[in-house]
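Journal club prep — side note

Before the paper discussion, L.F. wants everyone to see what a predicted structure for a comparable chain looks like in token form. Sequence:
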Amino acid sequence: MRARLEETGYLVDDGLAIACFLALRLGRPIFCEGDAGVGKTALASALAEALDAPLIRLQCYEGIDASQALYDWDFPRQLLHLRAAEAAGVTDAGRLESELYDRRFLIARPLLRALETQPSVLLVDEIDRADDEFEAFLLELLSEFSVTVPELGTLRAERPPVVVLTSNRTREVHDALKRRCLYHWFDHPGFARELAIVRRRLPEVSARLAEQVTALTQALREQDLLKPPGVAETIDWAQALAALGATEVDAELAVATLGSVLKYREDTERARGMDLAAVLARRGA
């Protein structure tokens, strides 16, 4: 599992590799929790690539309901069909009703698409942003991997999708959902691991620049920031500096490009007050 994921450019530790292996072997969802930008969403993409399966993503948000996540009826097409049937002189009400609620008029949202696509990887992103009602609905669906459409009957997955749920921990997800999943906490990586990720994702960036940017990001995380930068921001920063033609970075250039890695004014001001030159000097030593 580790080798397959690393072939996609996604580096994993033993704990995550084992969680992914067990998810495939046992058919259990993986619940990924951690700060934003630490690689939770990227795991689902890497799994899809490693398994040669489509990635189906459901982005959660406040107020999301079953019709937006599961299925809905295509009312405009149903109305056009009804008018066409009336124009053709069809008067059989029973026939019209059965035709209106045919599978061709059913719009499959991400959850239903994942049940009907074999194989597939289903990403339920930021489940902590959804409300309790949707979480309870999702719990039932993930338990049975089936859904009942009143007009069509029960639709069941022949082969359940590989499911990855992510949470930025803006609120606690109910234990009932966690109990049905394999759990993995995503922490910020150490220097060596983060550097390896940057080098793997951005092979065009000079080794010196990748090392300096990683050291600067690690130093920023030690500050009391509103939003500590994740690995995604480290990659963005290195990419931005490389786009400027830099092969290494000094304190002045680092300050000028802080917008690539920090997204709050307060964090930017705190970073400007740091001795970034000393951080770079320590890395040089």
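L.F.'s comment for the group: The mean pLDDT is 90. Keep this in mind when we get to the figures.
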